[in-house]
Each structure stands twice: as C-alpha cells, then as structure tokens.
Batch of 2 targets.
Target 1
Amino acid sequence: MDMYKVQFVGLVYFKQTNDGRHALLPDGREVPDVVSHIATIAVAADDLADEDPFSGWRNDEIIRTPVDASITGTEDRELVEFRLSGDSVEIEGASRPRAGGVLSAKWHDGKLQPLTAGSPDRVSIVPDQARTVADVRIRSGQLRATRFPGSDDDGQGAIISELSVPHPGETVTIILRRRGNGGDGSPAKEVRTITVKNGTEIAIVNASRPGLSGPHDETPHFRIYEQLAPGRLTLTQEPQETPRGFRPSESEHLLFLVPQPFNSSIKCSNTCC
C-alpha cells in the first residue's frame, strides 16, 4: 500500500481529542505589532492529479512559484500553493475513522512545547471558538515531530510535524469547506478541493512570507497563537530552545528548496496539546 505524507510547518497547534487531533492554524493575517502570516496548502505541480487536480479556487487564491533545475538538481518544476482563509479541512484517508486505521502520536506530542508553557493562564482551547485560518482533522496515520529541514542543531530551529498515512487509492483528495457561513462557525456551503497523486508529500504552512506578507523581523510571531483563545490567552514568554540532537526532517517537499520561503526559526514552531 502506498503512503502519502503531510508536513505541518509554522504556527500549528495540535489539539488532542478522544479520537485524534485538530491541527489548528491560528489566524495571523492581521495581528497588531506582528508581521502578517499567510497559510497555504502547498504541493508540487507535478504531484497534482492528472484529472481534475483542483476545483472551486479563484486565481488570486493560488500562488505559483517556479523552481529551476539549478535548485532542484534535476529539472524545472513549479510549486503550487492554495491560500487558506477560514477552512475546515479533511484529507482523504486521514480525517475520518477507518477500519484498522488509528492515529499514533508517540513520537509527536511529548516532543512539542505545550502552548501554555509561555502563558500564565490555564486556558482550554476550543476548536470551534478559535480564530483560525484552518482546522485540519486528523484521525489516522502516524505523527512525528522533527526539526525544520536544513536548520542547524543550535536550539533555534523550528519544530515541524509529519503525518504519514497508508492509503490504497491512486489519488488523495483534500476537501475544504469555508467556515463561518452565517457567523456561527458552522461549515459553509462553499466547497473547494485539491487532488494529488498518492505517495506524494503535501505541506500545510502558516508562516510569514517575504514578498507576500512583509520582511522577516524580530516581532514575537508566537503571539499569534493567542488567536486560539481571543481575550483569554496571553503569551508572555519566548518559546524554549529546541532540544539538541532533535531529529531533522528528511522531507523532500519542493517547498523546502525555495530560497528563504518563510521564517524557519523557533518563533514559528508547532505546539500542542
């Protein structure tokens, strides 16, 4: 059986539930005194399905970045990103319970810094009440925390998360439903899709982006996590250092070959729980 992978990069909070996780991407588009963050689903163009690769997307919601052969080492390729703006996200094979499929997170949750470690408050994150650009439901596969690919083992590299999912089909479809229709947080009727070839890598990213959201700076990016509990959560401490010897990611996603695509420091690490 083939296996696909999903890389969660940047500001992503993993909320534990009885049957899996919510991967919550806090909305960092307009947070005072913090550089704007942009959330996307990123895939290589040649990993999109041959037929009906995506539907429901406007042209201004799609970012295309050419990556030439001098960078890939083989041939010219293209990175395609779909901008998120308040979506409930389901990934075929990972988001719904299935026979023989359970979520394993033994190499994940204990490796991430708990969000409340930087807060004097004891706040429970409620997914339906959080201010997010995406809520990705995870109920199957294996989660593993790793250090940002290519980052130095100096305690300052961001922690990202990899979800590996065995899947029997030839393709994997991602279904996005725009939330907040009517203001009650319920799924809207607007549905968008992305379909990729099985065996590929998908990236879900929430980070500052030079050229799209302004230059990298020293503002406390982690404060964007306060959007998960507006008015109730205050983060006062910088994230702790990444432990030395933390396993580096072996991802081959095209996203990580693009020069300086986003902030890869500890300021934009995944958190939980």
Target 2
Amino acid sequence: MSGGEDDAARENRPGVPPPGDAPDEERRDRASERPDPGETLGRILIEARSVGRDVIGLVRVALDRARLGARSGVFRLVLLAWLGIAGAAATVISVYFVVQGLAGWVAEACGGRTWAGRMAAGVLVLAAIGLAFGLQRGRARRAELRRLEARYGERERASQRGEGE
C-alpha cells in the first residue's frame, strides 16, 4: 500500500481514531490538567483580597506619617509663637526699664522735674527709633540701586556686544 492508502485505511478502520483526533482518555487527561475556571477565579479573588489588605495597610501607614508630620509642624509653630511672644515681651520690658532709667537721669539733670525727664526720654527713644529706621531704609535703597546698576550694566554690555558683530 502506498502512503495515501494507509491514511485512508486508517481513517476507515473501526476503533481507530482519525488522524489529529486524540482518544477519549487523552482528552479527559488534558481536560483534568486544565485548571477549573472557578478555582482560578477563586485564587484570583484571594490574591486580590491580599493585595487590597496590603494597599490599605500602606495607606494607613502614609496617613499616620502625615498625621505625625502635621502634629510636629503644629508643635513647632506653637513653640516658635511662644518663643516669639516671650522674646518680644522681654524686649519691651528691657526697653521700658532703660527708658525709665534714662528718664530718671534726665529728671535729676533738670533739677528733679520728673515730667521733664520722662518727656526727654520719650523724645530720645523716638529719635533713636526714627534714626534706626532711616538708616536701614537708606542701606536697603543703596543695595537695591547697586543691584539695578549691575543688572542694567550687564544688559548694556550685552547689547553693545550684539551691535559690534
């Protein structure tokens, strides 16, 4: 028999499966090797729950860190506010005592006139504050002028270089 006749004979023989068709037992074995769709879905759901729990745990950790950071920031802010208030109060009290001492000294120099000493001390304090603010303003203005001169000088040099080309 030739090769073509063998195939035709095999296809027609009873009990022999046609080529490409596996026996029933092999088909059943392959079907049992395939995972059950319900079982696969169950595993996926279990893994999804586990991942969900992990994500929730990570979110909780992030929220706890944020809360601790906020508490720490608020604590620092309150501490700095109290320190600022205490520093301002100490400064005011110190200035008050200095002015009182100055007023007493001026009063003694004016022949015991308390009102003259207080007025002179007040005028001196106001003059000192005005002088300090004026000096600071002049210093800031000079610094700003220097910055502007440097900026415009650089622009002028850049424009001159551009014209020369």
